[in-house]
Design a protein that fits this description.
By secondary structure, the protein is of the alpha+beta class. About 40% of the residues lie in helices and about 15% in strands. β4 and β5 form a beta hairpin. α13 packs parallel to α15 and α21 crosses α25. It starts with a helix and ends in an 8-residue tail after the last helix. The structure holds iron/sulfur cluster. The site of iron/sulfur cluster (SF4) has 13 residues, from loops.
Length: about 625
């Protein structure tokens, strides 16, 4: 038997309230339209939920989705994608993590898990080859993510892979993460940890040793070998292991891509020295997040001594290091390393955590927050002792921490208009550590991304117009970035549409997005999918799948009330940088966002309010989504 259905589509449905698990096959029609991962999850969410449901209610689904390439040996195939309605934003929530969890799930015979209901007691979902069980495990409650993982593995076996929440998820902090890979890898954005916590589900543990099905094994293996060889022979790809994403500190600072002082500027002039300090004092070794990664961007790091002494752990990604340095005007790299470790132990998204602290510092500076709002203590720029104290209060939801645990949008709306001007978010999701004043494609990408202000779902727009990457998409209509001015606005709407369709594919097919940056093209993906399924695919068809999934997620968002107003950008990033290398660079600020937005809507086939038109949905084979 050939085709996608022969290699992918086993869905484990778990009802925690009833304690019942059962396996179903994905519908063939849905597989053909959406393939897997975040695409199939969009279809499931639209079919299985009603408008305006509470994301923390028992009926809210949490979907753990792999893609057809996950666990196959394809380049970067260690992904798992969590899809849900975000309690932070109220719209489409999605968060990817790399680790051996996704490949192990597939080896256990499960491709997608849909979790609904609420367990009576704090519990763990155990998936062991062909057996499934919801196991009450109250002793795990309140433990850090690494202690939970350790305890589960001690009890069940070291060959289990674990995804778990920490105290932040248990306490329903709106930006709680789910941690994988021995608590070192986060599905951080949008608050999946809170959704899991609301279900009394502390962890999912999986063991599997079966084979992931491939239709034409030899052809598939040869293709993987060829692509890997090509990636390794590109000298530019040595940067992944040599510097990890942390090396971006220096490059982003130089490019005006480093949000600084809660987005008052887009450069700081200190990125290079921060990175040098990290390399010399904290960095221990590079490594992969799953067995088989050849790029090895993972960082093992520590702080040997001093107030922020931190054990050897994996973390310290660029995003985390930036939110805990430049966002806060903190020059103490040891403190940022400590923050990375602590957030992972609490199960907190590091981007949102650093963002709410930067927002609080801004509010204290402007007199919107006063010492009496925080047990008599003001939080000044760079105050890391105060930041750690507040982080703990966020996790336990005490005092000011309780307000910040709701995210910057909700906190600002309670504090008033002046605070709202300081809250940097789109659709309620705090801004990640790339500044749209570095390239106009990123600003538009942030505005229209289905999850909110997100750099990785679907893609970092500035990698094209500022970073000059073409992702092999020039034959598919993407303008050659070498001929594009990063500060230009004309044509960016059309380009971002193509970038978004492509950026969906790693999350649909189940592989690490960094491999797309390293040189895996849509044509490679078409070849891999053909060998995997024994059927023919073209790059064009795959981009259509990306477009379809993107539209389905937008339909979900429109159903939940999203309109053009929600695609607008926060005021702060539409202002001239207040200081730094780009302070005089007028062109770095978007001059006509409305025009870019309309160009994007037009390229998408959406109406002027950002709604997918009937004509577009019919063209994509999504007539059932016409409302
Ligand atoms: S490049 Fe980094 S994130 Fe991607 S699979 Fe490898 S180690 Fe994981």
């Amino acid at each position: 038997m050939q085709g996608l259905k022969a290699v992918f589509g086993k869905i484990l449905k778990v009802d925690l309230s009833a304690g019942v698990c059962r396996v179903e096959e994905a519908e063939e029609g849905a597989l053909n339209l959406f393939m897997g991962g975040a695409g199939l999850a969009a279809d499931i969410m639209l079919k299985e939920t009603k408008a305006n449901y509470d994301p923390l209610s028992s009926e809210a689904p949490l979907i753990i989705a792999t893609g057809p390439l996950t666990g196959t040996g394809a380049p970067g195939c260690g992904s798992v994608d969590l899809c849900f309605k975000s309690p932070l934003t109220g719209v489409w929530g999605e968060s990817r993590s790399g680790s051996d969890f996704g490949p192990t799930l597939r080896k256990a015979g499960v491709d997608v898990v849909i979790i609904t209901g609420k367990a009576k007691e704090p519990s763990v979902l155990v998936i062991d080859e062909g057996c499934w069980e919801v196991r009450p495990w109250p002793e795990l409650k309140s433990l850090s993510t690494s202690k939970k993982t350790e305890s589960i593995k001690d009890n069940l076996g070291s060959d289990f892979e674990v995804g778990c929440i920490g105290p932040a998820g248990e306490n329903l902090v709106k930006f709680a993460s789910v941690m994988f890979g021995d608590a070192s890898r986060a599905a951080g954005r949008s608050g999946a940890g809170a959704v899991m916590g609301s279900k009394n589900l502390l962890a999912v543990a999986v063991r599997g040793k079966g084979k992931v099905p491939i239709a034409e094994t030899e052809k598939f293996i040869n293709l993987c070998r060829d692509i890997n060889r090509r990636l390794i022979s590109d000298p530019g790809n040595a940067v992944w292991a040599n510097e990890g994403t942390t090396g971006e500190l220096a490059r982003a600072d130089a490019a005006g891509d480093l949000p600084t002082k809660n987005w008052e500027a887009n450069s700081w002039g200190k990125g290079k020295e921060l990175f040098s300090y990290f390399q010399e004092n904290n960095f221990v070794s590079a490594g992969p997040c799953y067995k088989g990664c050849i790029l090895k961007c993972g960082r093992k790091a520590k702080v040997d001594s001093g107030p922020w002494e931190t054990p050897l752990h994996e973390g310290c990604e660029y995003e985390t290091m930036t939110t805990f340095t430049a966002y806060l005007l903190n020059e103490d790299v040891d403190a940022a390393v400590h923050a990375s470790w602590l957030c992972n132990e609490f199960g907190l998204d590091t981007i949102s955590a650093g963002s709410v602290l930067a927002f609080a510092m801004d509010c204290f500076e402007k007199g919107i927050l006063k010492p009496e709002d925080n047990d008599g203590k003001a939080l000044e720029w760079g105050d890391m002792e105060g930041s750690f104290e507040l982080l703990r209060k966020i996790v336990s939801k005490e005092g000011l921490g309780g307000l910040l645990a709701e995210g910057v949008r909700a906190a600002a709306s309670k504090l008033g208009k002046e605070a709202q001007d300081l809250a940097v978010h789109v659709k309620g999701l705090e801004g990640p550590a790339h500044d749209p004043r570095s390239g106009k494609a990123l600003g538009l990408s942030y505005g229209v991304a289905n999850t909110g202000m997100n750099h990785i779902h679907p893609i970092e727009g500035m990698a094209w117009d500022s970073g000059k990457m073409d992702f092999g998409l020039i034959p598919y209509g993407l303008p050659d970035p070498e001929k594009v001015d990063r500060y230009g606005e004309e044509g960016k709407g059309k380009a971002v549409k193509i970038l978004h369709d492509f950026g969906m594919l790693p999350d649909i097919l189940g592989f690490c997005k960094f491999y797309a940056y390293a040189g895996v093209t849509v044509d490679d993906l078409a070849d891999l999918m053909a060998a995997l399924t024994g059927e023919q695919f073209t790059g064009e068809e795959l981009l259509k799948v990306g477009e379809r999934a993107y539209n389905a997620q937008r339909v979900f968002n429109v159903r939940e009330g999203v309109s053009k107003e929600d695609d607008l950008l926060p005021e702060k990033i539409l202002r001239q940088p207040a200081f730094g290398k780009y302070a005089q660079k007028v062109e770095c600020v978007i001059s006509d966002y409305e025009k870019m937005l309309m160009e994007y809507y037009h390229a998408r086939g959406w109406d002027e309010n950002g709604r997918p038109t009937e004509e577009k949905l019919l063209e994509l084979g999504l007539g059932h989504l016409v409302r």
